Each structure stands twice: as structure tokens, then as C-alpha cells.
Amino acid sequence: MKPWTWRHAIISSPLPSTTRHVLLTLSCHVNDAGEPAYPSTALLATETGLSERSVVTHLQDAAALGWLIVQKHGYGGQRWARNQYYPRVPDGFELPDREIRGTERTSVPSKTGRNKKALNEVQQLVDKGTEAGSVPPEKALNVVPEGTEPNDRKALKEVQSNTAVNPAEKAAAREAENDAAAAAQKISKPENTERELTDLLIDLERQRGKDLTIDRSRDRVHVLTWIGKGVTAEQLRAAHTAAVAARKRDTDDRPTYAGFVSTFIDQVLAPPATATPAAASVETEDWYRTPDGVDARGAELAQRTRKPDEDWRYYRVLVAKASREPRAIEFVLSDAQRFNQLDLYQLARKTFGDALMPVDDYAS
Predict the structure, then answer these.
(1) All residues at 6 or more sequence positions from 272 whose CB lies less than 8 Å from its CB, including other chains
(2) Its domain of life (predicted)?
(3) d(C-alpha 197, C-alpha 224), whole Å
(4) What is the rounded distance in angstroms from the CA atom of residue 86 to the CA atom of residue 68?
(5) With the C-alpha atoms ordered 338, 342, 347, 349, is the resulting torsion angle positive or negative?
(6) CA dist., res. 217 & res. 199, Å (int)
(7) Looking at residue 154, what is its pLDDT?
(8) Over the chain (364 residues), what is each successive 10-residue block's mean pLDDT?
(9) What is the C-alpha separation between 319 and 325, in angstroms, rounded?
(10) Distance between CA atoms of residues 306 and 134, nearest Å
(11) Domains detected in the chain
């Protein structure tokens, strides 16, 4: 997407002023071909005059609303690795008319003969090539202002006039520029669109007899993250298969949803490097099922040590919140309901908050 198109959309958007400020600053790093930019958040903080934390927050908000796609830079293994940002316009957003509106009558010079005084006071650029012999050569370029040196005539003769542009050359240059921009846009465009991945997930659930509804206010950020990571249709199918297996293992008959599948997306993109599949399953999926697994996961997340007389199920709530893993959060809630531990269930809901609660979970 051309940077000036993106800026025009941002300026015309209903986004908060600070979010627009951050996006407009980011747009200054997008080149004319519309390729993704990768300035550091520290640099954006300096340029916007905001804190780095504030810049990150507004970028996340903009990504959730569909104004950009965040992807790890290709050199992720380097010390200077950072995010790169694809400019985009949300689905359904219509760019306003770019024509000048609100100008007063007679405020813009016209070529129809009106406001001749205004036209006479400005330099008129000739739209069409001058006919041969229509302007004396000595008067066409050698209009020397009063006070210039005699030798300045030579310099003026060497200046190419901008009044006789070859239309064929201009059209060819414009076509070459458009072709280059289209090629760059094709290279930088993510493989799958938001609609394709969303429709695929809904279709996969429909095949198993489930009716999946995508909540744009909460699920869309997950789908945009998949696009930023370059998730393919096959990888989404593999992650969905793993998510369905987890549902069956937990005897959970609910459909999967974007946040739950996202956990398995990460596993598909970066499978754990353990010696055996069984060990990998215990370490990456089932830590929340045993006291030892919860304690080990808590240590990995730098959580406080569980007290000797503390029920591990209550401690698991804190670890699950720190992990932000949908499958762990779901298991904690379903486990409390399974054993009718209402106080544990209410504690979990209060601890997780609306941001981490499953979209299909309702207070009992």
C-alpha cells in the first residue's frame, strides 16, 4: 500500500488522536513502494515524543483494529531483531473523496477566463507543447530579470524547459513506476488474507458439526497475528487438529476458537526440540495437570514459589494467568466446574479477567 494512501486513510479514520500520531510517524518509514517498515519502538518513541510503552500499546491497538500487520523481521536470529509492520486499511473502511472540498468561490484560479487578475499574478505553466515557431527562441528562455549578469544568458540556455514535456515519455515513465510498485506490493503481501484464514477455521469446525462464530472484537487480533507470522492454510489445519485433540482429551465438547487455536499455531511453527513425542506432550501441553508440572512452569515464568500449605490448584490459577495460554486457562476453569469448586472457579474468573477469559465462557 502506498504510504500517502495509508496516511490519507489514517487522517480520515476515527482512531484516537495519539494512535493516529503513532501511525503517521510509522508511515514516514514506509518507502514509496509500500514495503513493510521495521523501525524500533525506541526510535518511534523518540520521534513521537511518547514513552516506548505507550508506542507499543498504540501499535497493538492499531493492529487489533486492522490498521497494520505485525511480523517478526526476517533476521530474527540477530541481536538487532525487531518487528516489521505491513501498512493496511481495515476491511470495510472506505477512503473519503480526495477532491478539494470547502474552497470558497473564486478562491482557486480558473482557466475559463474568470479571475484574470489572479491568473496574471502567477506564473502560468503551459499544459500543451508549444508549436514550432510560436515563441521566439531568444524570448522563450532568455527572459533575464533586471540586475543579472550578461553571462547568465548562457546558463539559462542550458536549462531544459518544463513546458514541453513529451507525453509518450511521461506515460512510459508512469507505467514503469506502476509496474514496479505492483511487483513490490505482491512481494510484501502476506500469503493468506484475514478472510481466507477465518473462513478456513469456520469450515473446519463445520466439518465436525460445530458452529463457530468469530468475535471481531477479541478474535481478530489472533487472525492478524497469524498473517503476520506467515501462517499457511496447511499449518492452520495442523494447529486445528491439535486443538481438537486437546478438546477430546479434556472431554470438552465446545468448538475451538481463534484464541485456543493460537496456542497450537505456535507449536506448529516452532515444535519443541525434545527427545521423544511423549516427553514433549507432557512438557508443553500437560504441565497444568500435575503439581510438579505447575511448580516447574511457575519457576519458568518467574512466579513466586508455592507455599508448603498452599493448594496447588489455587497456585495453578496464578501460573495459568502468567502463561496466558488459552488451553491452560480453559482447563483450570473446567477443572473447577468438574469438581464443583465454586470458590476456585470464581477466583479464577476474577484473576484472569475479561481479557483472558474464553469467549464462550459465562458466569455461572
Answers:
(1) 280, 283, 284
(2) Bacteria
(3) 9
(4) 5
(5) positive
(6) 17
(7) 47
(8) 79 90 89 80 88 88 87 54 79 67 51 50 47 49 48 46 52 57 46 80 90 79 85 89 85 84 83 47 69 92 92 94 90 85 90 78 48
(9) 10
(10) 94
(11) 3-87 (1.10.10.10), 191-271 (no CATH), 277-364 (no CATH)
What's the gap between Cα 7 and its chain centre? 14
Per-residue confidence (pLDDT) for residue 211, from 0 to 100: 87
Grid cell 499457511 is found at: 232
Q: Which three cell numbers stand for residue 43?
A: 526510535
Single out the residue of 337, 342, 325 nearest to residue 361, CA to CA. 337
In angstroms, what is the C-alpha Rg of the chain? 31
Cα–Cα distance for residue pair 358/257, rounded to 1 Å: 9
Give the containing element (helix H, strand E) for 5: helix 3-11
Specify whether the CB–CB gap between 117 and 109 falls below 8 A: no
How would DSSP label each residue in 310-340? S-HHHHHHHHHHHHT-HHHHHHHHHHHHHTT
243 and 264 Cβ atoms separated by less than 8 Å: yes
Burial class (CB in 10 A: 0-12, 13-18, 19+), 351: middle
Distance, in Å, from the CA atom of 237 to the CA atom of 254, rounded to the nearest integer, reads 18
Residues constituting the chain: 364
